[in-house]
Description:
Chain A is an alpha/beta fold.
Amino acid sequence: MAERCAVIGVGQTxxxxxxxxxxxxxxxxxxxxxxxxxxxxxxxxxxxxxxxKAPDMFEGVMMPELFLADALxxxxxxxxxxxxxxxxGGSTALVAAYLVQAGVHERVLTVAFEKQSESNAMWxxxxxxxxxxxxxxxxGGYFAPHIRAYIRRSEAPAHVGMLVAVKDRLNxxxxxxxxxxxxxxxxxxxxxxxxxxxxxRYLEACPSxxxxxxxxxxxxxxxxxxxxxxxWVWGTAMRSEPVIAxxxxxxxxxxxxxxxxxxxxxxxxTNPRREIDVAALYVPFSWYAPMWLENxxxxxxxxxxxxxxxGVTAIDGDLPVNPSGGVLSSNPIGASGMxxxxxxxxxxxxxxxxxxxxxxxxxxxxxxxGGSQFFAMWIVGSExx
Amino acid sequence: MSEPVTSIRRPVRLEYDFTAGRAMxxxxxxxxxxxxxxxxxxECARVYLPPRGTCPTCGVPAEEEVEVSPRGxxxxxxxxxxxxxxxxxxxxxxxxxxxxxxxxxxxFHLIQECPIEEVRMGxxxxxxxxxxxxxxxxxxSIRHFRPSDEPDAAYDSYREHL
Lengths: 385, 162
Ligand SMILES: [Zn+2]
């Protein structure tokens, strides 16, 4: 790679069930303007814009990047749209990073968003097709059987999903941008919440949010001129796998394992559990926390739930996971992956506010999408690699 | 000043013409005859259902037609309690990953004619077809699956499909 890449600006919107106070351009501009301000730049200082969001049917607007170009200051500059389902916020940031690393642009604005209140995210992708069984169950209905398989394979105790649900919502109280604010959340409350897609309870599932996230990425020279301490990109990786294949393991997907191995290799990490200080993982349903802890090599297969149960993943534990409250507390789908990447950057910059993990120097940002088909990850560090 | 326009509701409707292709055509025509047709890979011998014309693992054409049993095993499942806007099944209902005998990948389908609390991993089930005169070249020719009154499959017989 010709150039280093660093994050010099991070911005996000307040996430909410409905941001009726802003249009779609207003929403993305809110996040982008904050990222620029954070980087000490104006719109003029940006060379290119890389935007991502999940399927267009989530808002019912085809190719929204076309009508968002001017709101994002892209007039007279390149703008491109990335799409990899739920992992798109992560892969969008990676495409922006590649433009910097390849020496194509010096300063790239990357933005990801979803405005789910404008359509119906639960059913927007549920179409009737002749070549599939006439079964529709929403995203929860797709993932719930795999969670059941995880519980059977790992013999994890039933309360692990509830522990994650409580931990992430308590963490969200420290994050002023989080959508859900549930100060009274408790194991009893989660246990008593309705079973939506057995074994997923209402309070073990993510909300549906409107929100956006943006970052400014630059090269080594740009980082030198930036007012604050940058977050340096130590490694980036993406992987995908087919929808249907014999031996495809949706509990511990091969694409996720190989993506992490590639990532750790680039970042010089041999023991992720010891060397990574904080992890921002894409956990839309609480049980995905222990599943990803195994997939990403933080725990042996079948033992991820022990890290949760032992408090290792708490904000004051020795591997804090989702101190911001994560996807379980804010889920504007297209932005959710970038929010994980941005959270990793804020942590190593020491700027995560009330949910800052003390002494965080190396952080993982993680996103997945489709039926666990797409993975995007990065490692950022406080020191130049 | 009048009230600001905060939102305008616009329904979206799309119609598609779907080109099934050779593999899917055979599969759909099989359903119209009350048969479930998969395809075997010449290299790894795995049987794919529905067939795609290729093996995603080996990357080679998989054109050998293999008839798959209408009976199979529930590998895993979920109970859906949220009413669907398009599916006319009353909640709660069960969606299951079903590994049909002779196939190497599970399909996702409904389990009916069974109390919800009796659905379990390893349950043996069979396809319930629409009446013979109503069979068509669509997956909807199989209404749902129901228990087949066989003993449960052992966990080891399907664990690699989880
Ligand atoms: Zn093969």
